[in-house]
Design a protein that fits this description.
With 66 residues, the chain is mainly α. It has one domain. The protein is 77% helix and 0% strand. The chain is built from two helices and no strands. The radius of gyration is 15 Å and the shape is elongated.
């Protein structure tokens, strides 16, 4: 049950980072790098979630279909 909550929290933060990057793209008229930082955070979180899912499956926290 805990792994499901962690996965959902990761997904919410990933989508939030994506929307913040979109906001920075439309609202920020200067040449700041806030959008790039937001997208970098999103990519890092996505890779972390993928590794977490693979580790959870390997250690048996996420059962497979058999």
């Amino acid at each position: 049950m805990l792994i499901k909550v962690v996965i959902i929290l990761f997904l919410i933060v990933i989508v939030g980072s994506l929307f913040s990057a979109m906001l920075f793209m439309f609202k920020d008229k200067s040449n700041s790098d806030r959008m790039v930082k937001a997208l970098t955070i999103r990519i890092g979180l996505s890779i972390s979630l993928f590794v977490l899912l693979m580790a959870g499956f390997y250690f048996g926290l996420i059962p497979g279909h058999r």
